[in-house]
Specification:
It is built from one helix and no strands. The chain has one helix at about 1-159. The radius of gyration is 66 Å and the shape is rod-shaped. The longest helix has about 160 residues, at about 1-159. With about 160 residues, the chain is an all-alpha fold. Helix content is about 100%, strand content about 0%. The N and C termini lie far apart (about 225 Å).
Amino acid sequence: RAQLSDALEGASSSGAAQKRELEERLQAARRRRRGMEEALEQLRDEHGSHFREACEGPVHQISVLEDSISELQRSSSLKLAALRQQGERVGGRTASLEEEVFGAQARLAAVDRSTETTLGRASAVRAQAAQAKEALERDCAEAEAQLERARKAGARLAE
């Protein structure tokens, strides 16, 4: 019995030691499991945030690009409208200037015709004046000749 009791006590102490060792290993395994769970949760959080960034980043960039495109289209439309209005004003002013040029050309042509007519008349008047001068000079020369003859005749009579 003593032997049995010693064997039982040895087995109990050996069982208790094994139990303590198993409990320590179990607690170590639980700590490792909690560490792994925490690491897994951290990986899940990181993965989730990276996934959100990967999904939301391009969406945000697309949204920014769409806003930029809309702003460019709006400003381009405004500039195009302004350029069209300016073109219409310039076109209207061009038409007005063309009308003024046409009118000025017509007046210039009339002045040219009038000048030619006036020059023609002036040439005719000059020709008539030259003819009249020549006729007067002939008449004057003839009158002087008659006067000279009359003087000579008067001088002969007076003698």
